[in-house]
Structures are given as structure tokens and as C-alpha cells.
Amino acid sequence: MLSELIASLKSHDATIGIVGLGYVGLPLVLRFHEVGFHVIGLDIDQAKVDALNGGRSYIEHISAERIVEIGKSGFEATVDFSRAEEADVLILCVPTPLNKHREPDLSFVIDTTESLVPFLRPGQLLSLESTTFPGTTEEELRPRIEARGLRLGEDFFLVYSPEREDPGNVSFSTRTIPKVCGGTTPECLKAGLALYGEVIDRVVPVSSTRAAELTKLLENIHRAVNIGLVNEMKIVADKMGIDIHEVIRAAATKPFGFVPYYPGPGLGGHCIPIDPFYLTWKAREYGVNTRFIELAGEVNSAMPDYVIGKLVSALNAARKSINGSSVLVLGIAYKKNVDDMRESPSVALMERLQDMGATVAYSDPHVPVFPHLRDHAHFDLRSAELTPEILASFDCVLIATDHDRFDYDVIKLHAKLIVDTRGRYLQTAPHIVKA
Predict the structure, then answer these.
(1) Contact at 8 Å (CB) between 387 and 401?
(2) What is the pLDDT of residue 319?
């Protein structure tokens, strides 16, 4: 069956089923469609399905025109998981969050797999792309598939290939970002390489699904640890009266041995704040305490409180109490120039400010209405327009995410007090506080 599957992939006759139509899944839909595959989208969110079938996009950097285009070419989204039987390939792109105890929550992966299992058939390939700890593919997916009576490497193929999406980064696309892939058997790996080789410029094979799973964690833990380092350096530099952003710019002129990372009000996005905990949790099973990783997590998790402390001190210096003050938060996406709010530190800042008695508003050109978020308070707010009058009406303006579409000259001219967490202002001023 392997030869038949590979032949259908090379001829683009295979049907591709993308399960989970968010920031990872929807770009995959577009890429497979772009090279001529027939694609089915599956999701449990009826609103997403209705939007796609209606030619509407819910991700800012993906235009409605592209959704209309794939619809005209036969793409269909559905909540009916029985349609999985029509697909030759199923790619799982579902969330892997943490639970309230900061432990891995595999419920989306497991529930989705169990929803698909009744409709799996011989000749299919299943690829898991969700970030997870080493062993998930072998320990959670493999037994469920084999319980269906399917033989991995013979009549069914299972791989792990971690997603590498970077929303808002125009330098890289789904096609140009190299793709790591590991299979449960050598034959499974061959199927995975055949699949991704048709849509990705470079596919990087590894020896196992466990190696691929750990590769993804290493990539993001590398960033988390270095961001933790620079966040701690920011606190030290602040105590010494040194601008950490000036120091980073100077250090970055070294042409070897240094990679610049930048401090901020906390970690955001689906990967960096979460992935380290997947490894630290799994490492305990092997009697290993990942002290270095956990320390970086502690530093990064404390950054919202550090920012709030700086904001409170700045208000006190202006003879104002945080209780009763009005604060305008600029940017609620987790990074600049995108609409992605997953794990955004801005939300944590808004919650803390509100708990302390402040009146909170926000402005974000990429998020016009504050969305409903899992495990966070909901703010019944719309993005405020940054007019001189509105800026002047707030006791403090907090730059949490430095979108390029903000007019920083206007902000500087009209805001009474600015707390800048992103180093946007190179020059100091009496009403600008760097945090």
C-alpha cells in the first residue's frame, strides 16, 4: 500500500484532510491547494467552518479572496468527522495547551484521534503536527490506531512532523520553512517524506517520532531560555540605569557568537510560553529535573508583575494611585503586526490592572474587538482610536505590543505618561518610563 500512497501523492491525486483550521491548519490548506491537491478541512468549531464555506477569513494575514478561491476549486470545511474516510492523508493541527496546574493537556489530540479512529481505513497516512512531549505519537496515537486493526508500516502510516508557522513573518512561508519529519516505522517515514516533499522545499528526516517531537521542543525552549536571560538582564540593567535595548543593539554588532533576543512584558504565542512545560513534565518521568529551563520559565512568568510594578511607580511619581487611574494598553496581540492573541501577555497585564482598580481600555489595529479567550477574563471592549484627545484622556499609556501601525510620534506628543515595555522609544523623556 505504501507504493500506491506515494504514487497518489506524487501525482497529486490524493485527498488531503486537514484537522484543525487555525493558524497552523489553514495555511496548510492553502499550500496543499496551491499545488493542486483536493483538500477537506475538519474542525469542531462550526463558526470557523461556516466562515470558510462562506468565503470569509478569520486570520488577518489570510485574505478572504484566497478563501473564495479555494472554495471555487472544491475545498470544503466540515464538522462531520466521518468525512475523514474520504482522505488519503489526515494532518492533525489541534491545540496542545496546559491545564490549570501547568501540566500538558492532550485532550484535544486524544479526543480528535478518537473521533477519527472509527473512520480510518487501510492506505491512509496520519501526521500529527501539534507540539507535544516525546512519546505522544507512540504512546497515545499508535495504540488507538492499532486497536482499529490497522498495521503501521504495512496498511497504515503514522508520522510526527511539528508545525513551524510564524504568523506575520513575511520572510518565510509554509513552503520555504524546512519541515522535520519522523515516522513510527521506516515505511511510515517514507510516506511522510513523500507527503511533505510535494509542498515543502526542504524536508528533514529524523530517526523517530520521539526525535521529531523533541526537536520542536528544543527549538522553542532555546528561545524561551534566551528570552528569560535577556528579561533578567533587563531588570539588572534597569537597576543600574542602563538601557538594555541600547546594550542589545551594541552587542548585536558582533558578527559571531551572539544572537540578539529582546525583552518584553512576558511570553506570548502558543509555543514559547507552553512548550518548556511539556518537556519539564515528561523529564520527571525519567528522574530528571530541568532546572535551567524551569528557571527561565520563572523569570518569563514574572515579567507581567515587573511591568505592573514599573507602571505603579510611574503613576505614584505623578501623584496618582493605580486604583482609579485609567490605563490604555497599546497592542493586545502577542507580537507585533499580527492578530494572534494566543497566550498574549497583554491580557495578563489587563487582568492585573483591572484587579488593582484601574479602568482599562486598549487599542490594537489588528484586533478590533476583544475576543473570548479560554481561561481568561473577558473584556467587553473595542479597540480605541488613537486620536490626540483619546491619548490625552488616559492617565497612562502602556505599550505592550509595538505594532508598526501605531504613530509613536503622536503617542509621545499627547500621552501624559508612557510605560514602554518594548524599547520603542530610543530617546528618554520625562513622561516616558521604560519597563
Answers:
(1) no
(2) 95
| Whether 144 and 232 share a structural domain | no
Is a pLDDT exceeding 70 seen at residue 367?
Answer: yes
From the candidates 181, 188, 271, 396, give the one annotated as an active-site residue.
271
Please report, for the domain that includes residue 125, its CATH number.
3.40.50.720
Hey, which residues does 432 pair with through a beta bridge?
Answer: 418
For residue 422, which of 171, 237, 243 has the smallest C-alpha distance? 243
Q: Based on the structure, what is the number of domains in the chain?
A: 2
Can you tell me the distance from the alpha carbon of 359 to that of 172, in angstroms, rounded to the nearest whole number? Answer: 39
Angle between helices 209-239 and 275-284 (to 10 degrees): 110
Q: Which domain holds residue 6?
A: 2-207
Give the pLDDT band (50/70/90) at residue 165: confident
Same domain, 265 and 299: yes
What b/e string do you get for 112-140 counting C-beta neighbours within 10 Å, with b at 16 or more? Answer: bbeebbebbeebbbbbbbbbbbbebbbee
Tell which phi-psi region holds residue 351, choosing left (phi > 0), alpha (psi between -120 and 50) or beta: alpha
Three-state DSSP at 327 gives strand
Q: 275 with 308: CB under 8 angstroms?
A: no
Type of residue at 11: S
**What is the distance of C-alpha 338 from the center of its chain?**
11
Task: Mark whether 93 is an active-site residue.
Answer: no
If asked whether residues 261 and 306 sit together in one domain, one would say yes
Verify that 168 and 248 share a domain, yes or no: no
Write down the pTM of the prediction: 0.91
